[in-house]
Amino acid sequence: MLDQFRRNIEYVRISVTDLCNLRCRYCMPEYGVRKIRHEDVLSYEEILRVVRALAGLGIRKVRLTGGEPLVRGGIADLVRAVKAVPGIEQVAMTTNGVLLSPMAKDLKEAGLDSVNMSLDALSEDVFAFLARRPLLSWAKKGLEALLAAGFAEVKVNCVPIAGVNEDEILRLAELARQEEIKVRFIELMPIGCAFRAGFRGVPMAEVKERLAREYGTLLSVSQGSGIHGPAEYFRVPGFRGQVGFIDAMEHKFCSSCNRVRLTAEGFLKLCLHAGTGLDVRALLRGGADDGQLREALSRAIHRKPAEHFFLEEGGAGLRDERYMYQVGG
What's the half-sphere exposure (Cβ side, CA atoms, 13 Å) at 14? Predict the structure, then answer.
């Protein structure tokens, strides 16, 4: 499925809930969280209907996100049903890992192909400060359960924040020395809670320099075939796994963006930071048949914007000013 700029859109991120068991400082406010009404959240049946329509248009990869997707009951059943949709080749999930320990095996058996686990620190105090919850031990057990379950691909995501978790960069990279996982460093985006609190991200060039100083030359790795996101990966001498970098600010990857997002309340977002899109829930609950749904999705995706407007003055009025947990990350 090609958009107006001839990009092949083959990947959808679906937020199954806006609820979360952490309150990470760059994602959610500590108090006054405005929850979506239960009846306004898409049911699993509605999500599957959208997935079937998108698969018919060429979507091949689905990532389930939140909030925290594991707080929603029956998530393994949804994984199993999505994986069974003709045309869907990969089903992935992004999670904070806190609830993974008792669920990892069931998720693997349901057909989940890969997991991205958000983990910004391995020090108890830094984790508790960032997440506003002292649950690092739960997250560590979740990562252990992922590895024990035998997932083909496990990624650990860290958002380096200046003066907060900079000292965690090397500690987290060490996970890739010990295990065949990908530890990824993601540039802090100038939106939401972090931006309003005055947090400043650590530039990815600086993160790379720190790793190279400690471990030697980073060797670029091709991702090969498949449906990939924007991360750039490197091998490190002596490491079993890899390290990766997602740099949305200094090196825009909009020209190769291959994804759209569906929020928990059923709004199809064409870009993470754009407010434009399609009210899919209105179509689903307004009597649209499958053909009408597919046609509306196709028209909307064709209008996907050329790029994000994180910093540009011209983006005023086009930006989605909601917090990250509200838009699915």
Answer: 27
